[in-house]
Write a structure and sequence with these properties.
The protein is α/β, with parallel strands linked by helices and about 325 residues long. The protein is built from 12 helices and 13 strands. The longest helix is centred in the C-terminal third of the chain and has 24 residues. Bound molecules: zinc ion (ZN).
Length: about 325
């Protein structure tokens, strides 16, 4: 058993309380490899933004849980080396799907876990979430739960259709589970294809897809039921068209990829939404940069020569999100 406190990590409690008061949101960025982690920490350190490092079940399988944990520990030290005296870094399990997985992460030094039992019937969601909360809270580890179902694909999490969160359930759910934050479904979606072309309209000038707006009425109703309670948005990549264009220009094939417009996320960040999950955007940045090097310098075979530019582009992306979308810069 390792406590996250020994690793220099923090849980989400104080982060979220400050974010709700201050009208901004904490970035939750997924990572699977060194370059991604370096980019996240560099961006957070340079902007002095609290940050949540997210590890999905798929990432644990890909990178190895022991290695990931030491990487997170290393990230704290790296942040200090970059001049961030008091790094506010949380290590969070994204989409935990069983008590055993959540327990294993708590025991392994995570400071926060998500139990996603949103696909189960309501009472089963409550029972499983409460079991995780009861375990995690013994070690001051915070727990995110989910009500409602997001569409899209993220690692092993997938659903064809979304079901908005029912505002009339949230008080009962939060009270009975004791969860620290709640992921809700208001129209965000996992992956780089958040909407089908049929769900969108097309901008007549650019020919680009324009997605339907988020259901802010559902968010408002949830906030009315649970004033001041931390709300989380998953699937909140904006799928920047510049990266999609770069990928397509250099031999990729991502037709009609579409995300959540940043102005909608900006609006959400000012509310009780205090954690916004962004994963696909960094995958797109990484891929765009690598494809560009491969296309322009076909003789290059040193991974540092294409992973380096990928890291730079991700750093730029993360800083942009922190400063221009979430407003969390200068808050840590
Ligand atoms: Zn998610």
């Amino acid at each position: 058993m390792v406590s996250y406190k020994e690793l220099g990590l923090v849980n989400t409690r104080e982060m979220f309380a400050k974010a709700i008061k201050g009208g901004y949101a904490i970035p939750a960025f997924n990572f699977n490899n060194m370059e991604q982690l370096q980019a996240i920490i560099k961006a957070a350190a340079e902007t002095k933004s609290p940050v949540i490092l997210q590890v999905s079940k798929g990432a644990r399988n890909y990178a190895n849980q022991t290695l990931l944990r030491y990487m997170a520990q290393g990230a704290v030290e790296y942040a200090k080396e970059l001049g961030w005296e008091n790094p506010q870094i949380c290590l969070h399990l994204d989409h935990g799907d069983s008590f055993e997985l959540c327990k294993s992460c708590v025991d392994f030094g995570f400071s926060s876990v998500m139990i996603d039992a949103s696909s189960l019937p309501y009472e089963e969601n409550i029972a499983l979430t409460k079991k995780v909360v009861d375990y995690a809270h013994q070690f001051d580890v915070t727990v995110e739960a989910e009500l409602g179902v997001l569409a899209g694909v993220e690692d092993e999490v997938s659903s064809a259709v979304s079901h908005y969160t029912k505002p009339e359930e949230v008080v009962d759910f939060a009270t009975r589970t004791g969860c620290d934050s709640l992921a809700i479904s208001i129209g965000t979606s996992h992956g780089a294809y958040k909407f089908t072309p049929e769900q969108c309209t097309r901008d007549p000038k650019t020919g680009r897809l324009v997605p339907p707006p988020l259901a802010f009425d559902v968010l408002d109703a949830v906030m009315e039921q649970l004033p001041g309670f931390p709300i989380v948005l998953h699937g909140s990549s904006s799928v920047p068209q510049e990266y999609v264009d770069m990928i397509n220009q250099y031999g990729g094939k991502l037709p009609d990829a579409v995300g959540i417009p940043e102005e909608q996320l900006r609006k959400a960040a000012k509310s009780a939404v205090c954690k916004i999950n962004i994963d696909s955007d960094s995958r797109l940045a990484f891929t765009a940069a690598v494809r560009k090097v491969f296309a322009e310098k076909p003789a290059e075979f040193d991974p540092r020569k294409y992973c380096g530019p990928a890291r730079d582009l991700m750093t730029e992306l993360y800083k942009h999100k922190i400063i221009n979308v979430l407003g969390s810069d200068g808050k840590a």
